[in-house]
Structure prediction request, 159 residues.
Amino acid sequence: MDLILRLATIEDLPLLVQHRRAMFEEMEVYGARDLDAHDQAFTSWAEHLVMTGRLVAFLALAGGRPAASCCLWLREHQPRPGLETAHWPYLMSMFTEPEFRRRGAARALALAALQWARERGFAHVSLHATTPAVSLYERLGFTRTWEMRRNLLDEGPEV
Ligand SMILES: CC(C)(COP(=O)(O)OP(=O)(O)OC[C@H]1O[C@@H](n2cnc3c(N)ncnc32)[C@H](O)[C@@H]1OP(=O)(O)O)[C@@H](O)C(=O)NCCC(=O)NCCS
Prediction:
């Protein structure tokens, strides 16, 4: 299958919302009501960021049809020695339509996002992977980091 990759425009936002919803649906964690609300919230959030260049999305087309997409979010970050950029790219919303899976679409999109970030001088790209995507990212050189998190809804030492 020949894939054509291109950058998304604001006109592609409904597709990005649809793919992001489909990604969450496959996780089987959220109900329809939460996902409906999220579609709206994500659309407003992403619209502003796409328009200001802080959310860059990549599409893979197969036979003219959208087969897969992902987004690179330039997250604001605190200054850190040796890193002059105020934004750190975060790869998110990776989704391939089921009929186009296991043909390298996600890998091609991730590579395009990495190249995009490297060409603009960013030092790294981070992400949170779903279980099915871990090996894809590991093969592209992603490694685990040392972020820690305290769930405030859990029982535990008094806060
Ligand atoms: C995870 C996901 C994005 C992968 O998309 P994809 O386009 O199928 O990914 P790729 O084709 O690049 O790679 C997937 C696998 O197919 C294999 N593959 C790629 N081209 C292949 C080919 N021509 N023949 C056989 N296998 C192939 C890859 O080696 C990879 O193997 P792995 O799972 O053992 O690592 C897709 O399954 C998906 O959308 N899942 C639901 C949403 C989700 O979890 N998104 C990730 C968010 S972090």
About this structure: The mean pLDDT is 95.
